[in-house]
Amino acid sequence: MTENDVQVRANTDESRYEISVDGTVAGFTQYALEGQRADFLHTQIDDEFEGRGLASQLIRGALDDARDRGWEVIPYCPFVNQFIGKHAEYRDLVPAEERERFGLTG
Question: Model confidence over 61-78: pLDDT tens digits?
């Protein structure tokens, strides 16, 4: 698989980010937008695409886009929360008053 095979895109009509492999949607992360705050709720990668690191690519792309849009992020989804915990460069997306609640104070 080459980098050209994988694409992350915003599907604002369905309030989610999708990751595609060779044009096939392989997974998504769902969010609920309230003003400039995106509550990330659930991430799913289809079984046939698991084990390729697509979830991490998806979340990185989603968080980069959220930053570009000026959104704050609330990581209710355990995978999004774990990703932010491992990648400190995204912690600033979570409002300071919410970081302790999600274990992101380190």
Answer: 999 999 999 999 999 999
